[in-house]
Amino acid sequence: MSRSDVLVDADWVEAHLGDPGVVLVEVDEDTSAYDKGHIANAVKIDWKKDLQDPVRRDFVDSRGFEELLSARGIGNDDLVILYGGNNNWFAAYAYWYFRLYGHDKVKLLDGGRKKWELDSRDLVTEVPSRARTSYKAKDQDTTLRAFRDEVVAAIGQRNLVDVRSPDEFSGKLLAPAHLPQEQAQRAGHIPTAKNVPWSKAANDDGTFKPDDDLRKLYGDEAGLDFGKDTIAYCRIGERSAHTWFVLHELLGQANVKNYDGSWTEYGSLVGVPIELGEGR
Amino acid sequence: MSEPQGCGAPAGGVAVTENNSGEAIIEGTVTSDGAPVSVGYARLLNDGGEFVAEVPLGPDGGFRFFAAPGTWTVRVLAPRGARAEETVTADRGHTTTLAVTVSAG
C-alpha cells in the first residue's frame, strides 16, 4: 500500500473539492469549528452524536451507520476525504470506523484542519446540500477492533502500544492536559505496553512523518516486533486510531487492532494488572 | 464516574469551574502587534520536551491547560510560520498566566 492510497494533501483537496464522487467530511467532537468555517463543500460528522450510541457505550450499529451516511448524501461508491481538528484524531477515528463498516474508498487529508489553517487556506460557512443516498453498510470487521478480554490475553504476548503522553502512561496525569484531571479510574498503563505517543508520528503542523522515520520510531526506538500482532490504545480510542492508521495504513502492518475501550475501560476493570511509572 | 468524553480540545481550552479549581492550570493569551491571535495553536510540552496537549486558540487568542505540578513549555504555532515558546512552572490549586507575543511573520 502506498501513501497516496490513504492520504491526500491540501493541494489535492483544493483541486478536487468540487468533483462528483468526492465527498469531504469534517469530523470532530466539538463541531463548533465547522460551524464557524470549513473547507468548501465539506459536510460534518459529530464524533459523539453521530458515531456513538446514545445509550450503550458502543458504536452506532450498521443500520445507524447506513442512516448517517445516507442522510449526509454519501454513497457506497463515493471517495470520502476525512479531516478534522485535534491533529486529525477524530478524522482518523472516523477513517477506522468507515473501514470497520466496509467503506474502503476513504482517505485522510494530511495535516487536517490545522495544516489548512496554518497555510491560511480558504474556509467557508456555507453548508452544502447533498441529495440523500441509500447507503448499505457491511458487518463490522472485527479484525480491526480489539475488546477487553483480548487485550488482557495479549499482555506479554502481542505488541501493546500505549499512544498517550508519557505523563498519562506513567500515571502522573489521568487525561490529556487540555482536560480537567479529575477522573474516577485508576492511573497507569497495561503491563508490557510500549509508550509511543501518537504525537511522535506527526510533524508540528499535524502531517504524518515520512515512512522511514515512522518505521524507525516503532521498530528501532520503541522495540515493537513487527512479526507480531499489535493492539493500540489510548484513553478513549481516537488518538490510537491515529496510530492504527500509521501502523496499518502507512506502514502496512497486517494485524493491527484499535482498542477503543482504551484506558477509560481498562483502568476501571476490577482485578486486571496495572503497571505504574515508565515502561520496562 | 460520568460517561467518558472524547479527548477533543475546544478552542481556547476547557472553562475553569468550581469542580476543577484544585487543578494546576496554565493559561494565557497570544497577541501579535497588540491584537489577539485567533487562528493558531498552543501546545504543552513536558520537561523532556514531549508533546502533552494542544488546543486551538480561542477568539481572544486564549488557551488553557490542566497540567500537574512541575515545569512545562508552551509552544505557539500561528500562520505564516509564526512561533513562540515560553517555559513555566505549575502548582496544584494555582493558575499560571502567560502573555505570549508572536511576531507577524
How do the helices and strands line up, and which of them pair or pack?
The complex is a heterodimer of chains A (280) and B (105).
Chain A: E1 7-8, H1 10-16, E2 22-28, H2 32-36, E3 43-46, H3 47-51, H4 62-71, E4 79-83, H5 89-100, E5 106-109, H6 112-118, H7 148-153, E6 159-162, H8 166-170, E7 194-195, H9 211-221, E8 230-233, H10 239-250, E9 256-258, H11 262-266
Parallel strand pairs in A: 1-5, 2-3, 2-4, 4-5, 6-7, 6-8, 8-9
Chain B: E1 24-32, E2 35-36, E3 41-45, E4 51-56, E5 62-67, E6 70-78, E7 82-90, E8 95-101
Parallel strand pairs in B: 1-8
Antiparallel strand pairs in B: 1-2, 1-5, 3-4, 3-6, 6-7
Written description of the protein model:
The complex is a heterodimer of chains A (280) and B (105). With 280 residues, chain A is of the alpha/beta class. Chain A is built from eleven helices and nine strands. Chain A has two domains: 116 residues, Oxidized Rhodanese, domain 1; 119 residues, Rhodanese-like domain (Oxidized Rhodanese, domain 1). In chain A, the strands form two sheets. In chain A, strands 1-5-4-2-3 form a five-stranded parallel β-sheet. In chain A, strands 7-6-8-9 form a four-stranded parallel β-sheet, covered by helices on one side. In chain A, strand 6, helix 8 and strand 7 form a beta-alpha-beta unit. In chain A, helix 5 crosses helix 10. Chain A is globular. The model of chain A has no long low-confidence stretch (mean pLDDT 94). Chain B has 105 residues and is mainly β. Chain B has one domain: Immunoglobulin-like (Sandwich). Chain B is built from no helices and eight strands. The relative contact order of chain B is 0.29. The model of chain B has no long low-confidence stretch (mean pLDDT 87). The interface between A and B is large, with 46 and 38 residues.
